[in-house]
Amino acid sequence: MTTAYYSHPACRAHDMGAGHPECPQRLDAIADHLRATGLDIALDWREAPPATLDALELAHSAHYVLEMQDLLQRLRDQGERRALDPDTYAGPATWDAALRAAGAAVAATDAVIDGSASNAFCAVRPPGHHATRDAAMGFCFFNNVAVAARHALDVRGLQRVAIVDFDVHHGNGTEDIVAGDERVLMLSFFQHPLYPGSGAVPLGTNMVNVPVPPYTRGPEVRELIEAMWMQRLEEFKPQMVFFSAGFDAHRDDDLGQLGLVEADYAWITRRIKEVAERHAGGRIVSCLEGGYDLGALARSVAAHLRVLADLTT
């Protein structure tokens, strides 16, 4: 079992300003914890390449990709920062970071399909699941998981892929991109109401949305996953599974009010991995989304990775 770990220094250089929760230290916390616990030696560390514009256009409109390219390259050349919405800031390092984040997801997809890795985790930022086909929002510029899923379908020729999103916030961008595409089954749970306020009514029959109220804890989430996700996932028989791996549903994370702990993330990963092993040859690519309490984030990513790498906890 080879679990590839994709990242790049450019992803750390992207900085939305002092005090912003989506900070460079998130990647430091994860990497430091992996080294401190010895988990790093069980992973195949790989450098994320930049995504091509063609790859980005698998999930985004050509107009939006060119608009982002123009804006982010100007900010890079001028050394400036600009707010795209009240929470999302682009700066000099954002263009390169965004390309590497999406590029990691595409490279991981190729590696897993080609068999050079059994599965992969992309420790990247900016995250992606709020980026819609035509708009940046919610800390996100390009939708890394949607780009990778469409790459698996449109470039690599798979017929069915699943996207599993366990971030505390609804992955509105991913839903905007893949709703109605019956080659994709998207399953998610998320706190509702909470930013971005969507998801209570799915946009397509290929969506399995499970909104949960504040203060829902891990055992309740597990029951809902068993009741709402698993039969649909088994019937769909995905040929590859993508995780939008947000860890801000952790009880220590201040951006949400759910009550998950590390063992819950391990359980979710294990249940989905079992399906991937039955139907997809174990092919999984996981991309970091949220998670803003640094200690909880690092521990939860480690729990996720231990399951992916078939290590005992």
Low-confidence stretches: none
Which class do the helix and strand fractions yield? alpha/beta
Strands, count: 10
Rg value: 17 Å
Question: Looking across the biggest beta sheet, what order are the strands in?
Answer: 2-1-5-10-9-6-7-8
Number of DSSP helical runs? 11
Distance between the termini: 16 Å
Gross geometry: globular
Major β-sheet profile: 8 strands, parallel
Helix content: 40-55%
Series of secondary-structure elements, N-terminal to C-terminal: EHHEHHEEHEHEHEEHHEHEH
Could you tell me the strand content as a percent range? Answer: 15-25%
Brief description of this entry?
The chain is of the alpha/beta class and 313 residues long. Helix content is 42%, strand content 16%.
Verbal overview:
The protein has 313 residues and is of the alpha/beta class. The chain is built from eleven helices and ten strands. The protein has an eight-stranded parallel β-sheet, sandwiched between helices. The model has no long low-confidence stretch (mean pLDDT 98).
Describe the SSE topology.
Elements: E1 3-7, H1 9-13, H2 25-37, E2 43-47, H3 53-56, H4 62-78, E3 82-85, E4 88-90, H5 94-114, E5 119-122, H6 144-155, E6 161-165, H7 172-178, E7 184-191, E8 207-212, H8 218-228, H9 230-236, E9 241-245, H10 262-279, E10 284-288, H11 294-308
Parallel strand pairs: 1-2, 1-5, 5-10, 6-7, 6-9, 7-8, 9-10
Antiparallel strand pairs: 3-4
Helix pairs in contact: 2-11, 5-6, 10-11
Keyword list:
313 residues, alpha/beta, eight-stranded parallel sheet, two-stranded antiparallel ribbon, 11 helices, globular
